[in-house]
């Protein structure tokens, strides 16, 4: 007989980018509602740990110069520069079992699963899929920031990689560069097969 928590261990909570720059009002790309998201995510992480689930946090982790930033031709203000306060996880979050870095080098790093090089357009995988496969995970719950950017990209990748995927909408918030982007992101995820709860 296997361990009693085998079923629970086959699900994972994927916490997307709940870092100071997105979740603290002093952060450089503060997402409105980000503090409330950090508080909710913190409880969800504790709950997932208690029930034997795997908790993985992604961190946007950019070099100081990247074509992802406005000042170098991209669309975002400077944020989550590796090793800075803005790139740290929100202090309310407990320590996760695993951390996946994304947006390194020349990549946008929107999805926690895949990396698209901004110069060559080549797409490669992060460590996340292998980590989940290694732990026997088949069901993932996605939460975090921003709903209409990295949460969207991560949940869509999760579905296309074959994971049963849930989104807890109340533990996400959109940055909405365009008004309505949050609502459209939820619709897109629903249509792709993400269960919105
Ligand atoms: C994100 C914009 C730029 C995110 C990351 O985590 O949603 N948004 N980089
Ligand atoms: Zn970024």
Write the layout of secondary structure elements.
Blueprint: E1 11-16, H1 20-23, H2 34-50, E2 54-60, E3 98-102, E4 114-116, E5 123-125, H3 128-134, E6 139-145, H4 147-160, E7 164-173, H5 181-192, E8 195-196
Helix pairs in contact: 4-5
Provide a short characterization of the protein structure.
With 197 residues, this protein is an alpha/beta fold. The chain has helices spanning 20-23, 34-50, 128-134, 147-160, 181-192; strands at residues 11-16, 54-60, 98-102, 114-116, 123-125, 139-145, 164-173, 195-196. Helix 4 (147-160) packs parallel to helix 5.
Q: Count the beta strands.
A: 8
Order of helices and strands: EHHEEEEHEHEHE
Would you tell me the structural class of the helices and strands? alpha/beta
Largest sheet composition: 6 strands, parallel
Terminal Cα span: 33 Å
Number of helices: 5
Percentage of residues in helical conformation: 25-40%
Bound molecules: pyrazine-2-carboxylic acid, zinc ion
Query: How are the strands ordered across the major sheet?
Result: 3-2-1-6-7-8
Quaternary state of this entry equals single chain
- Flag low-confidence runs: none
């Amino acid at each position: 007989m296997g361990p009693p928590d085998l079923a629970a261990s086959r699900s994972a909570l994927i916490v997307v980018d709940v870092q100071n720059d997105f979740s603290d009002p002093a952060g450089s790309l503060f997402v409105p509602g980000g503090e409330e998201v950090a508080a909710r995510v913190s409880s969800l992480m504790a709950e997932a740990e208690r029930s034997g689930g795997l908790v993985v946090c992604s961190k946007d982790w950019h070099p100081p110069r990247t074509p992802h930033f406005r000042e170098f031709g991209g669309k975002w203000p400077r944020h989550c520069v590796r090793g800075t306060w803005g790139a740290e996880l929100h202090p309310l979050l407990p320590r996760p079992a695993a951390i996946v870095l994304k947006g390194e080098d020349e990549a946008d790093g929107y999805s926690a699963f895949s990396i698209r090089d901004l110069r060559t357009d080549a797409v490669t995988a992060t460590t996340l899929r292998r980590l989940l496969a290694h732990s026997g995970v088949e069901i993932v719950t996605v939460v975090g920031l921003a709903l209409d950017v990295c949460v969207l990209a991560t949940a869509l990748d999760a579905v296309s990689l074959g994971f049963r995927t849930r989104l807890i909408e109340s533990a996400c918030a959109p940055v909405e560069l365009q008004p309505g982007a949050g609502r459209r992101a939820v619709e897109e995820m629903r249509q792709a097969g993400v269960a919105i709860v």
